[in-house]
Amino acid sequence: MEFAWSEQDAAFRRELVAFLDRELADWQRSETGLGSAVYSEFSRAFVGKLADKGWLTPHWPPEYGGGGQGAWQHFVLGEEMWKRGEPRGPQYMNVNWVGPALIKYGTEQQRRTLLPPIARGEVFWCQGFSEPEAGTDLAALRTRAVREGDGFVLNGQKIWTSYANVADYCFLLARTGSTASGRAGISVFLLPLDTPGVEVRRISGLVGEHSFNELFLTDAWIPAECLLGEENEGWRIVRRTLAYERVGAPRYARAALVLDRLAERCREAGLFGDEGIQEQFGAARAQCEAARVLVYRVIDERAKAKEPSPLANQARAAMVLAERAVGDLAVDVLGSEALAEGELGDAQFRNSLGAGIAAGSYEVQLNLITRLILKLPKD
Amino acid sequence: MSVSLRRTDEQRMLAESVRDYCAAHCAEQVRAAEGFPWPFWHGLAELGLLSLAVPGEGAGAGEIVTACAELGRAAAPGPIAATVFATHALPERQAVLLSQGKALVSLGKRPLLPWAPLAGVFIETDGDGAWLADPVGEVEPVEMLGGEPWGRVGLRLAQALDRVPTARALSDLALAAYLWGAGRRLLDGVAEHARTRIQFGKAIGSFQAVAHPIVTAGLALTSAEKLTMMAALAMDEGHEDGEVLAVSARLSASRAAVGAALTAHQGFGAIGYSVEGPIGRVAQRIRALATPPGYADGSGEQVLAGYFQKGRP
């Protein structure tokens, strides 16, 4: 693993930062919160510009609209985007794991049909995993897909589905095996959301204008071409997909930026003389850096085309701690002023609340680390 | 030393009446109201809960913490601790407006004050002194985490207030009690969720990763509760440690309530992030109330100084 950026990656970052400073000059994430209509419209226009520069899917193979670049360049993009509040909106998922899953498991026809619109920045995807009775225990999902004619009939309910209200497709998990089949009876479907029998209802969320959604499936028929990979092989696809998703949002990059801004505020207010504050800053900064290095190890694996490893769980746990440390610090040093809506403290606090839940709970990461890295016995 | 931290019969009855009132009148739509729920507030005044801190009314710190704990448990809206401060320190004419629920008080330090857009009485404090003040110009409303109406406002100081140290200690205790009540509400909620939510074929509370944080957060809340009651007793008995204990109680309850809120969020998972969900609004309120206001930056030092004065390290 190299610790220095190659000249090529560094030059790319410089060019990217200049572009973003220009394009995002008026971008106020706090005003146009994640998942809101304004946010989604902004991201649609913005992602088109990225695609024009070849910066939306630089890590994909050229035949599907990619730039044939390495994993690092994609990750530099991820860091700079997340730092600025992820102006790609839902499309960060498209490029980070939906597309790669299609590339790895899709049929040639699925790739030809579904990948180019992603690469051009024209479609939103959402992730239909969680259900009312299947959260952390995802393999307990009950949404059913039953073969009928040359396709499947879907029935069931998904919940906490971010972006379902604006998405064109859903990366959907459904049970094709028996009720008791557990992980062995799950398949992935690429569900067009305009399919008859699909209904979306909004749930208002606490983070900005972000909303979750419920997705109801009532006798929704889809053709067999919507199945991704083999029937009942969905769990394998998801495991791999989640390994990408765990480090897909480089949360430490945002936390580190917030930390820098807090430091400026403290310097202006003459608070840095306080040893307690210095120490808290040092500790929070160290946690951000630790998370960054751990995430880089995961990207290094990906760049070398190795199979996803438990390093991703470790990196994700470290990001949770970093985000929380900065959230606490923001409120501690700024006091009430930190809590005005859209302020650094308010935004960071809300984000840090979600850090331990989104993309797999913190506790599950710890369990996986104890088993896979520390080799502790399971029971 | 033997000190009873048990409530008196009168305090138990007070707690019950506040609990009953809130159960009947502090429904979700009152907590989430866009405008201020005046009928609810007037009801608190009729029960005498807004005049507990008025000098000579016969109530003491013990009654204040008893009532505020129940208000916290109900996540009741309104400037509760500030009203305790103000009704103790203000001259009778203004205090009566507040204790009868006819006006709300904004207590803080310029420029950003809680409840400013709705307040009829303004008090500025720097932590040591406090002044009745007149607003200058318009109040600029500010949306805050926790949903309480804050605002930026100019103030002209009109009159220095009396009894400030005691007023501050009583409002610290009111806030401490409110926070542990609110923290307890969330923790009871997540414990119930842990008992009933089934994942991996069993209640999630059977996983230590879920259970232990709930226990730990509960210990912190119980410690804060006992410290708050101890401090209230010290205040009522005129003990020299009363004020320092009151600050300690506020700091302790703040930390414990935030811990309970984070634990509840983690236990509830995505359910906690829904605005309509069982904990989201209360958790944010706790985070906001637990944030030391600008005038109380030196609280930790104040506690330490209390020890130094006694010659303890």
Describe this structure in words.
The complex is a heterodimer of chains A (379) and B (313). Chain A has a four-stranded mixed β-sheet with strand order 1-4-5-8. Chain A has helices spanning 7-23, 37-52, 71-83, 91-105, 108-119, 234-246, 251-268, 275-303, 311-334, 344-355, 362-372; strands at 125-128, 144-148, 151-159, 169-175, 186-192, 198-204, 211-223, 227-228. Helix content of chain A is 47%, strand content 14%. In chain A, a hairpin with a 2-residue loop joins strand 2 (144-148) and strand 3 (151-159). In chain A, helix 9 packs across helix 11. Chain A is α+β, with helices and mostly antiparallel strands and 379 residues long. Chain A folds into three domains: 7-123, Butyryl-Coa Dehydrogenase, subunit A, domain 1; 127-234, Butyryl-CoA Dehydrogenase, subunit A, domain 2 (Beta Barrel); 247-373, Butyryl-CoA Dehydrogenase, subunit A, domain 3 (Up-down Bundle), CATH 1.20.140. Chain B has 313 residues and is an alpha+beta fold. Chain B has two domains: 9-163, Butyryl-Coa Dehydrogenase, subunit A, domain 1, CATH 1.10.540; 165-309, Butyryl-CoA Dehydrogenase, subunit A, domain 3, CATH 1.20.140.10. Chain B contains eleven helices and seven strands. In chain B, strands 1-3-4-5-2 form a five-stranded mixed β-sheet, with helices on one face. In chain B, a hairpin with a 2-residue loop joins strand 6 and strand 7. In chain B, helix 7 runs antiparallel to helix 10, helix 9 (242-268) packs antiparallel against helix 10 (280-289) and helix 9 (242-268) packs across helix 11. The longest helix of chain B is centred in the middle third of the chain and has 33 residues, at 164-196. Chain B is globular. The two termini of chain B are 22 Å apart. In chain B, 54% of the residues are buried. The mean pLDDT of chain B is 92. At the A-B interface, helix 10 and helix 11 of A face strand 6, helix 9 and helix 10 of B.
